[in-house]
Amino acid sequence: MSNQQQSLLIERIVGNTAVISMNNPPANTWTAESLQELKHKVLALNENKDVYALVITGEGQKFFSAGADLKLFADGDKQNAAEMARYFGEAFETLSAFRGVSIAAINGYAMGGGLEVALACDLRICEEQAQLALPEATVGLLPCAGGTQNLTALVGEGWAKRMILCGERITAAKAEQIGLVEEVVEQGNAFNAAMGLAEKVANQSPSSVKACKTLVQAGRSMPRSQALPLERELFVELFDTEDQAEGVNAFLNKRKANWKNG
User: Per-residue pLDDT averaged across 52-57, rounded?
Assistant: First the structure.
C-alpha cells in the first residue's frame, strides 16, 4: 500500500475518544482501500476498552466527504460496482455497530457516501455552511451504503424521498429542522462540539451504552412487542458486569465511577 493510501484515514486517540479524519483531497472521497481501512479501524476500536466514543470528520475546510469518486463507475463495470457496494456496506454497517458512541462532525459538504457515513453514526453535528445530499439518482445510481434506510429512519419517508428521489440538496439549518442532524454550529466549530459531546460519553457506563444503543437501534427492525422484553432482559444482564456495581456504589458514595467493562 502506498503512502498516499496509508494516509486516507488519519486516526488519533484523545482521552477516551478516537478521532478518524477522512483525508483524500480535494473532496475526501472514499476508495476501496479507505473503506476497508475504516472497517478494520472500527473493529480494532471495539477491542480497545479505553475508547468510549468515536468522532469522524473531514480534513480541510470545504468538504466533510463527497462520497465515492464517480470515475470508479465510469466504465460501467458491474463486478467493480458489486465490490464497491460490498466495501461501502461492510464499512458503514461496522461503523453503525460500533460498541461506543459515534459522532459525525460535518465540517463541509456531505454528499452521497459522505452523507451515508454520517448517517451510520449515532449523532451528527453540522457546521452552518455545510450542505447535505444523496444525489446518486441524478447520475443513474442509488445510495447503496445504508442511505435509503438510515435517512428514512431519521427523517421519515417524505424528506427521504425529497432528498433521494428529487435530488434535493439541503442546508444545515434544514437538516436540523427535519432531524437529520442534532445540532448546527458556526463554521469551524463542529469538531470541538463533537469532542465536547464525546467527553460526556465517558461519564456513562460503557456496558450500559452498548446495551442502550442496541435497544434504540432495534426499533428499526424489531417490533415493539419484541423490543420491550429485550429491554428488560438486557437490564438484568447488566448485573453480570462490573460496571453495574461500580456505577451504583460510586453514586451512593458520591464519587466518580471508574468503569471496567466495555
Answer: 97
Whether residue 136 lies in the annotated active site: yes
d(CA 39, CA 88): 9
Work out the angle between the directed axes of helices 224-237 and 206-218 (0-180°, nearest 10). 170
From start to end of the chain, where are the E strands?
9-14, 17-22, 53-58, 63-65, 101-106, 109-111, 123-127, 131-133, 170-171, 183-185
Is 116 a catalytic site residue? yes
Interval 180-189: pLDDT, tens: 999 999 999 9
Cell 470541538, residue located: 192
Residue-wise pLDDT for 116-156, tens only, equals: 999 999 999 999 999 999 999 988 888 889 999 999 999 99
Q: Is the dihedral of CA 3, 4, 5, 8 positive or negative?
A: positive
C-alpha 72/C-alpha 89 separation (Å) is 16
Of 37, 59, 127, 136, which is the active-site residue? 136
DSSP helix/strand/coil, 139: helix
Instruction: Please tell me the pTM assigned to this model.
Output: 0.92
Nearest residue to 55 (alpha-carbon basis) of 169, 160, 176, 202: 202
Kind plus residue range of the DSSP H or E element containing 172: helix 172-178
Angle between helices 32-47 and 78-96 (to 10 degrees): 20
**pLDDT tens string 158-169:** 999 999 999 999
Are 11 and 17 in contact by the 8 Å Cβ rule? The answer is no
Catalytic residue among 37, 116, 127, 176: 116
pLDDT band at 3 (very low <50, low <70, confident <90, very high): very low
**Secondary structure string (H, E, C) spanning 44-79:** HHHHCCCCCEEEEEECCCCEEECCECHHHHCCCCHH
Q: Is residue 239 scored above 50 in pLDDT?
A: yes
